[in-house]
Every structure is written in structure tokens, then in C-alpha cells.
Amino acid sequence: MTSPRLREWTMHAKVIPIFSGDSAAHQGCGAKSDAGQSSCGSSAGQGDLPPAVWEKVKNHPCYSEEAHHHYARMHVAVAPACNIQCNYCNRKYDCSNESRPGVVSEKLTPETAAKKVLAVASAIPQMTVVGIAGPGDSLANPAKTFRTFDLIMKEAPDIKLCLSTNGLALPDHVQAIQDVNVDHVTITINMVDPEVGQKIYPWIFYRKKRWKGKDAAKILTERQLEGLEMLTAKGILVKVNSVMIPGVNDEHLAAVNQAVKSRGAFLHNIMPLISEAEHGTCYGLNGQRGPSAQELKALQDRCEGEMNMMRHCRQCRADAVGLLGEDRSAEFTTEKIQAMDVQYDRETRQAYQEYVEQERQDKVAAKETELAAFAGESDDTKVLAAVATKGSGRINAHFGHAAEFQVYELSAAGAKFVGHRRVDHYCLGGYGEEEALETVIKAIDDCAAVFVAKIGLCPRKDLEAAGIEVADQYAHAYIEQSLIAWFKEYLERVRRGEVQPGSRGSGQIRQGAYVAA
User: Up-side HSE of residue 288: CA atoms within 13 Å toward CB?
Assistant: First the structure.
């Protein structure tokens, strides 16, 4: 019998396809699409992945771009100590509105963390992953980290366990990681050359000694790569995070990409440096800039030919709760958790996740049906489009309420997710903020269109004046299917001379569109 909570969820998440069709063939991580693009995490199917690997990634929001529309993660802040210093990190700053690694509002004991996990999992049935990412380094606090995992594993064996680490202590703990059933490890690797590394890391603490300069960077990179090889030898999936720092390691990250691929990394996540001065980091105080969205995308595109890239990272807080891009940690403070009578409802969680999987299959089938219209299409036009969404793979957010826009590259091969752009809310208290609108337009000014569930007349006019088409006719429909349908009609307008996409072969963004070189 369907539980009342599950009936309520399914009613609110009613499927509203704009077309119907047969189930599509699916591709998995490492497979190639017809356009030759890697499809890691981009569809709901297994493709050529081994069954054991597919089970690890199919509902992991970090390891699958497609899954992140549907499944949530949780970070528990049980690891305060750190064994290295990074020029981009300051763990002393906390703001509830700040999405930044190392930031937490409260630190937890392993016992409190385990109870919090059960409470969150019962309230958010799509929460499938628990990770330890700080606020320091998980493996600089091994006793707390592994005690927490052990408690969670016994009480909620259906939840996937992850940890993030700088890798310095990793080789010493690989067996312990396997023993507590951690299937996913993220290592932050910003360099494989000590000359570059000394510009990023002032010091490390290793074997009871503080090391500086190139000596410190040499030890760090050797330990990181050794740990990566040890993990992959045991079949543990590894995601490598790299922070893109213009003028420091941006040109070097291609070499990092090749080095981690050769050692078996599953996914590479190149993230932008966060360097606002108010965060108090060394880079922020010294005026080191972060990369633009266009610079980040160019580097990701350059590395994508070598291995699968993660483009949907939100650089989460170390106590984040919810879907990527949202944070519900304030709903589950220690004070609130201690007052809860937590009843772990594994049956309802499983039923809800089965419902989500069916919706994912429906979404992929709808996309493939629409994509079939491009069979034999040879047009090489490519266009960027921004989407306002609250999750579930649908265009379901009001323009004024969007805190970010997901950006897709549209072509005859389909809709490819390429990143997200954070923005300030345009609508506050029922009124539009003109200054905020200017920042929104600037954030998506390389997009030909913005897809929203609803939008006011004034921002619509300003967007169109900026050359950004507003598409609200696909409200609450599937994202990729809608983007493909719109792009098909867009190409028809180009051929009729109603739209000028830019100079062919230039590869330059012009009037919201660009053509592949």
C-alpha cells in the first residue's frame, strides 16, 4: 500500500510531459554520444558501465549530472582539524547564505551526526548520499570520521557514504575507507608540479613536522597521487576536484587532468576560485581574481577530451543539506535534532526513489523523442541557454526567485549541461530590484534565451532589450526536451533570416549564439 507521504509527494511531482514516446536507449559514463561527446552522468541509463559501478553512480548527485536534478546529499561537519593550509581557504567565516567549502554553522560529534543523518533521511527521502568534507580535512580527523561512518552504516545501510580529502593522509587510511563501505572519495588536487604548488599551499603538516615551499608541495602531490592509485586499485570511485586559479594553475590544470586520468580517476571537477575579499582568504586579501564563467567553461572543454568532467558542482558548505544548489541545514540544527523522535522509514524512502527513477525514465524517453527530429541534421550552430529550475529536471522556477541559472549548450546533437551561474534574487518581498536585474543579465548575457516558469513584464522587456529571448511557454516541462524543441524552432528562424547567430566558424559568442570553429 502506498503511504500517505508518498501519495503526497507523487501528487506534487506530477509528470507533465509535452510529448510522449518510447523508452530511449541510454548511455552511461564513458559512453560516446552520436556527437562524440562523453555522456558520463548525462542520462538515466547504465550504458556501458559495469553493473557494480552503475549502482554506485545512478543516484549519486555529485557523480551523475542527471541524478543531481533528483537526488540530495548531506554533509556532516565532524572533522574540524586540517593538516594543510590553502591560500583560498578560511574556515573561520560563516554566513548561512554562503555556499563555500569549509564553512559550517556548528560542529557535530559522531553520535549527533548519525542522529542528524537519520532525521534528514526520513524528512528528505531523495537524500541518498552522506559525505564528510570538513570543515577541516576528513582524514586529519580519522577517529571522528570513521566513527561517524560506522554509526551511519549500521543504522542506514541504504545510504551511500563519501568523504572528501586533500589527500595528504590518504595512503594511510585506504583500507579503513574500504572497511566502512565508503564507495566514493573526492581528492582536491590543484597541481602535480611543486613549482606551481608552492604558490597555492603555504605549508603542510606531515609526520609531526611543518613543511613549506616546494618541499611541502612535493610531499603533497606524491601522497595525493599515491592515494588515488590505491583507491582505484580497490574499486573505489574517485572524483578529483581542482580549483582554477587564473595566473597560478589555470594553464597547469590540463596536466593535472592527464595525471589523474592515467591513475584511474572517475571524474574531474574543475571549480572556480572563490576569492571575495570579505571571506578573508589569502588570495581574497591579495586581490587574486577568480575565473569568469567563460574562462572556466573553456578550460573544462579543453580537458573534456581527456576524461569525464563534472560541471554541476555547487562548491557546497561542509554542512550542506538538500539538492545541489540548495541548503536546508537550518531545518536540522542540533537543537532541533535533539528534540526529534526520529523514526527511520526505509520502506517509504525506497518507494519514493522508485517513483523518481520512473520519472527519470520518462524524462529521457521524452528527450529522445524530441531529439529524433534532428536525425541527419548537419547544422553546426551552437547556442547557450539559461534555465531557472528548482530541481526534478523541470523548468519550474520563477525568474525573480532564481538564485542560479543552469546553462546548457544546444546543438543538433541535443542539450548539453555546461555549468551554472549564481545570481542575486531579482524579486525581493514582491518587488523587483533593478540593480539585481542588471547583475542577472550580465551573468547570462552569452545566452540566446532564458527558460522560466514565470516572469514579470518589466524583466521580460529588459532581457529582450539585451538580446536574450524569454521562453516561458515550457513552464513545468522537462528541461532537455523543452530546450531541444525550442532549438529546433530557433534554427528554422535562422534559416528564414529572422535571427543572426554570428559569424560561421568564428567560435565567438555573438548575440547569444556561437558557431563551432
Answer: 25
Could you report the per-residue pLDDT of 181-216, keeping only the tens digit for each?
999 999 999 999 999 999 999 999 999 999 999 999
The answer, yes or no, to whether residue 24 has pLDDT greater than 60, is: no
Q: Given pLDDT bands bounded at 50, 70 and 90, which one contains residue 495?
A: confident
Distance, in Å, from the CA atom of 60 to the CA atom of 182, rounded to the nearest integer, reads: 13
Task: Specify the pTM.
Answer: 0.71
- Among 2-16, 266-280, 485-499, the least confident range: 2-16
pLDDT given at position 196: 97
Q: How far apart are the first and last CA of the chain?
A: 56
The secondary element (H helix, E strand) that includes residue 72 is strand 72-75
The widest CA-to-CA distance across the chain, in whole angstroms, is 71
What pLDDT was estimated at residue 48? 63
Q: How far apart are CA 279 and CA 277, in angstroms?
A: 5
Determine the Cα–Cα distance for residues 181 and 56; give it in Å rounded to an integer: 11
Residue 202 near residue 85, CB atoms below 8 Å: yes
d(Cα 252, Cα 259) in Å, to the nearest integer?
11
Return the C-alpha cell found at 428. 525581493
Quick one: average pLDDT of 371-399? Answer: 84
Alpha helices in 124-264 (DSSP H): 142-155, 174-179, 194-197, 213-233, 253-262
Query: CA geometry: angle at 484 spanning 481 and 487, to 5°?
Result: 150
Q: Is the pLDDT of residue 508 over 70?
A: no
Q: Which residue segments constitute the domains of the chain, with CATH numbers given? A: 50-338 (3.20.20.70), 374-515 (3.30.420.130)
- 210: which 3 cell numbers? 611543518
**Cα–Cα distance, 21 to 369 (Å, whole number):** 6
Residue 374: closest CA among 484, 241, 510? 484
Q: Is 243 helix (H, G, I), strand (E, B) or coil?
A: strand
Grid cell in block for residue 159: 545510504
- The answer to whether 116 and 107 have CB atoms below 8 angstroms apart is no
The pLDDT tens digits for 456-478 are: 998 899 999 999 999 999 999 99
Tell me, what's the pLDDT at 47? 61
3 state DSSP class of 128: strand
Q: Quickly list DSSP for 252-278.
A: THHHHHHHHHHTT-SEEEEEE----GG
DSSP state at residue 109: -
| Distance (Å) of CA 464 to CA 72, 389, 422, 467, 512 | 35, 20, 20, 5, 11
C-beta separation of 32 from 39 below 8 A: yes
How far apart (Å, rounded) are the C-alpha atoms in residues 123 and 162?
A: 20
Judge whether residue 158 has pLDDT over 80. yes
26 is written with which cell numbers? 541510454
